[in-house]
Amino acid sequence: MKVEQISVFLENKSGRLAEVMRVLGGAGINIRALSIADTSDFGILRIIVNDKDKALAVLKDKDFTVSKTEVVAVEVADTPGGLSKILDLLDRQGVNVEYMYAFIERSSDNAVIIFRFDENDKAIKVLLGAGITILDGSKVYNI
Q1: Which of 30, 84, 99, 114 lies in the 20 to 30 Å Cα band around 68?
Q2: pLDDT (tens digit, 9 = 90+) per residue, 58-79?
Q3: 130 and 114 assigned to the same domain
């Protein structure tokens, strides 16, 4: 029920993000979701792609610093308060959200939120117990 995300560490300078996109596009890798956070010196690009192993290989081959992280893809009603309900449930159970980002499925009335929790297994148990849909990697990589 976990999804593998790739994190790419980038110097905060012009053209580095474009270079990552050229490398991935040139390798035929499709990005399904992304988030970028930055400081004055560097950024962290977090991506979900259709072929994570190939993406890791081509980025490492071009000397990018990359790592894999397990995250959880949660289907959330794309309505006002949909995310609040999920976060309230997690809060009541003491599950901490380290970070999150979202995307919308083209053929659904739901959003997909990518979560990194302090305790992924506990979060999955809480969410499933409340009837919340968690997407597996094969679904997310091919959305």
Answers
A1: 84
A2: 999 999 999 999 999 999 988 8
A3: yes
**Domain check: are 100 and 135 in the same one?**
yes
pTM of the prediction? 0.87
Are residues 76 and 137 located together in one domain of the fold? yes
Q: Specify whether 120 is located in the same domain as 86.
A: yes
Q: Are residues 125 and 136 in the same domain?
A: yes
Q: What would the two tokens of residue 82 be?
A: 């949909």
- Residues 36-57 pLDDT 10s: 988 778 899 999 999 999 999 9
- Give the pair of three-digit tokens for residue 114: 């990518």
Read off the tokens for 47: 């991506």
Count of H-run helices and E-run strands, the chain:
5, 7
Angle at 10 between CA 39 and CA 3, to 5 degrees: 100
Q: Is residue 63 located within the same domain as residue 95?
A: no
